[in-house]
Amino acid sequence: MADTDRPIQHAPDRPWIFRTYAGHSTAQKSNELYRGNLAKGQTGLSIAFDLPTQTAYDADHILARGEVGKVGVPVKHMGDMALLFDQLPLEEMNTSMTINAPAAWMLAMYVALADERGDDRHKLRGTTQNDIVKEYLSRGTYVFPPEPSMRLISDMVSWCYTEVPKWNPMNVCSYHLQEAGATPEQELAYALATAIAVLDRVKAGGQVPESDFETVFGRISFFVNAGVRFVTELCKMRAFVDLWEEIGRERYGVTDPKALLFRYGVQVNSLGLTEPQPENNVYRILIEALAVTLSKRARCRALQLPAWNEAMGLPRPWDQQWSLRLQQILAYETDLLEFEDIFDGSHVIDGKTEELKDKARATLAEIDALGGATNAIGHMKESLVGAHIDRIKAIESGALSVVGVNKYTSTEESPLGTGDGAIMTVDPAEEAAQVRDLKAWRAKRDNAAVEAALANLKAAAASSVNIMEPSIACAKAGVTTGEWGTAMREVFGEFRAPTGVAMVISGGGDEEIDAVKAEVDRVSDALGRRLTYVLGKPGLDGHSNGAEQIAARGREVGMDVVYEGIRFTPAEIAAQAKEANAHVIGLSILSGSHLDLVRETIAEMRKAGLENVPLVVGGIIPPEDARALRQMGVARIYTPKDFKITGIMGDVVKVVEKAWLATT
């Protein structure tokens, strides 16, 4: 049959899984949200865990202060897991968990819950993200060093394919790579290199017979990002499909067409969502959704869309419903699912796809030459920071247009986000309630059983015993998330990933940068030494992209910038500032915990005798919170609308001059 005789239209395909990324404050309130979303037509859950849960701390740990329930749901123990899935049929659910370092623990609790409820663990369907390499590179919720982290992932992959065979034990996540500035070829190559590193580790681990390896290969899934550059993003997805099949056939000898399928879920780009004119984000989200749904052979298996107002804070249920309705209209009102791939045979699409594949292969070869993904973390991190610098500078210069930010900035006031309740907030009292619940849980359990389970867990971690069954036993005994994390830390140790900002950067003739550099030199001369800026990320927020850009630009304009990375206590940041004799301290906080963490940092600065050092703060900060921060004494507050980083640096120089030189 000639190509022109091939059928082009058919009965509608089954749509992708509709998800919204959700979870907040408590397991009970999150369960109510999930049941409401499912009633509105959502077909799968995507669990957002709070930062203490993501980093394996209990709610009463010092680093958890101010972070409990802020960006997701706290799951401290089996009791929370039971509440989270109350009245939800586990055997029928499709549950995605955005969890990485403690992925084995969250899956263990999920399986333990199924066992206790009498559900068949073999029928459980879903995904644990479980991608630790991208945590080192972009998201920051890592805990353990690379080698034991890869061992945990390998254990899960090796265990899941027989015990929970419908579960995807790993969802290689390139989403956060693009959020950190990755180019399309970097997103392709870094994600594929991560999958290769895991598969090579599974092969070397000896837990999976060679005859079963094809099955394991087929259970590796991906979670990608789709930006607003529609044609490039669509071609990137087609490139992913081709390259994954190529890796399966050529590197691992996989021949089963079903096992070779590139199975991916997607959240469309949040990096491009804007605080100015946020209603425009609806159009961006729609265009990005089209990039991962229009091409049939590269169509996503699951899709979750951010809400239009996520650049300002947590979305309300109505905001999430609006994004869900977009998916439903696309799937059920249009004829999209009735046609064969509408891009097959396009020389433009084929050409761009081949270009991306060639660039990705070249980048993969670089990573291979460095010894694979886990050995190339430092190189990849610096490359990401560099790519993000290029993107930010393009926005600042206007070479990259962002409507409402650097182009067409005049606007009418939006009626969509005004008044109280425009974004969801978490009651600060919830954290204290979570700590009380944690203490009550510890008091009522059999502590001898807990100690025995933890001893077995540590023995397994210290040997070659698969970690999953000992973790499930811990869940059933009543072990908490922080106790599991502590046990693993005692065996594996902890890790601090590279920041990627060590390189010396030159402005290369940029007039604005040169002007600020001259001001830094002038003020430094007046101070008698180089203007010193200590930049800290307090608490558990791992979104370090903004802090990295501030650190890099500060060095570019000639400041002495001290930036040690993420996850420091306010006391540790104050100590860094005292040791460096800082002229200014900056905090970057994107988790919504700015009031608590700034208040505590100011208290620690006073204890250290740094009360005269000005403090500046950046993050997603609502206007009413900004007023509160100013009342605390914060000198400057920067939010996403302040996109010109060189301008921020110039402003910081003025803050330093006013604080230290105004009276001399």
From TrEMBL:
Isomerase as a keyword? yes
- What name does the UniProt record give this protein? Methylmalonyl-CoA mutase large subunit
Q: Which intervals hold domain B12-binding?
A: 530-659
What is the native source organism of this protein?
Hyphomonas johnsonii MHS-2
Q: Which UniProt keywords apply?
A: Cobalamin, Cobalt, Isomerase, Metal-binding
Record's CDD domains? MM_CoA_mut_B12_BD
Supply the NCBIfam families for this chain. Answer: acid_CoA_mut_C (TIGR00640), acid_CoA_mut_N (TIGR00641)
Q: Which family does it belong to?
A: Belongs to the methylmalonyl-CoA mutase family.
Cofactor(s) needed for function? adenosylcob(III)alamin
**Annotated InterPro entries:** Acid_CoA_mut_C (IPR006159), Cbl-dep_enz_cat (IPR016176), Cobalamin-bd (IPR006158), Cobalamin-bd_sf (IPR036724), MeMalonylCoA_mutase_a/b_cat (IPR006099), MMCoA_mutase_a_cat (IPR006098)
Q: Which GO terms describe its molecular function?
A: cobalamin binding; metal ion binding; methylmalonyl-CoA mutase activity
